[in-house]
Amino acid sequence: MGYTIVGKIINTHGIRGEVKVYPLTNDVQRFEYLKEAFIGDTKVAVNVDGVKYHKGSIILKFKEYDDINQILKYKDSFIFVSDENRVILPENHYFIYDLIGCKVVDTNGNSIGNLKDVLQGHSNDVYVVEDGDNFKEYLIPAVKEFVKQVNINEKLITVDPIEGMIE
Length: 167
Prior knowledge:
The chain is mainly β and 167 residues long. It is 5% helix and 46% strand. A 6-stranded antiparallel β-barrel has the order 1-2-5-4-3-6. The protein is elongated and about 60 Å long. The model has no long low-confidence stretch (mean pLDDT 90).
């Protein structure tokens, strides 16, 4: 089973086992209908018992924990959902973690490098592609004009750069 990160526990909240969560998802409302989650590297299964919002953070209560001392060990841990329960994205939209590490080639099949990061902007995202052989980094706007195909299964992105974009 695969997992998707949806948040990070940044602190406890109160003494009854609630945690303050920094959301790592664009859809913070997803916590409203979250029933089951997994905490930490060992993926401890928990059932969500309550959701509140407080000063830009999300406060979660898990059925399994009723005391601050029980939940304190999970501070700085990630919260995951199983891949079966992750949000379904519209066509031609991808999770950033699925894109990271993809090989990037041009339309002729020439290697440009590997996708290292995605910078999120107001109008569009920008792919940061690292060419480890030449110690270079390229910024490619993630728009249809340049990104021609994304194949997550093969970890391959095909782009059609304009002159001067890859030099």
